[in-house]
Design a protein that fits this description.
Layout: E1 4-7, E2 10-13, E3 18-24, E4 33-39, E5 45-52, E6 58-60, E7 68-73, E8 78-83, E9 92-98, H1 106-109, E10 117-118, E11 122-127
Parallel strand pairs: 2-11
Antiparallel strand pairs: 1-3, 3-8, 4-5, 4-9, 5-6, 7-8, 9-10, 9-11
Length: about 130
């Protein structure tokens, strides 16, 4: 079992920035990536960003490219999501997730079905 704990959510004005963190209780040899997803009120969960633990493979949703940045600290087993230029319509609960197996294709990184372990979520509220 892998436990994930997010932090860093809160209230921010439109156009502002926040950095989310997600720390894993442990890494497994069968898992090579971490991802961030978000769920707005009344909507489904959507992919935001994902990163291979080697840091060389990164994927972003088109809607956040150029504004968000994902990074990781292997020694701390922590993944970060730096969010800039936040928009009001993107108030959501942000979840980090870890797969239980190796991911290879880009489509796997962006699919919630690829991830077995999920954090409890951290809420980001963007005010106008």
């Amino acid at each position: 079992q892998v436990q994930l704990e997010e932090s860093g959510g809160g209230l921010v004005q439109a156009g502002g920035s926040l950095r989310l963190s997600c720390t894993a209780s442990r890494r497994t040899l069968s898992s090579n990536a971490m991802g961030w997803f978000r769920q707005a009120p009344g909507k489904g969960r959507e992919f935001v960003a994902a990163i291979h633990w080697n840091g060389a493979t990164i994927y972003y949703a088109d809607s956040v490219k150029g504004r968000f940045a994902i990074s990781r600290d292997v020694a701390k087993k922590t993944v970060y999501l730096q969010m800039n230029s936040l928009k009001t319509e993107k108030t959501a609960v942000y979840y980090c997730a870890a797969p239980s197996s190796l991911l290879y294709a880009g489509s796997a990184y962006s699919s919630s079905e690829s991830y077995e372990y999920w954090g409890q979520g951290t809420k980001v509220t963007v005010s106008s």
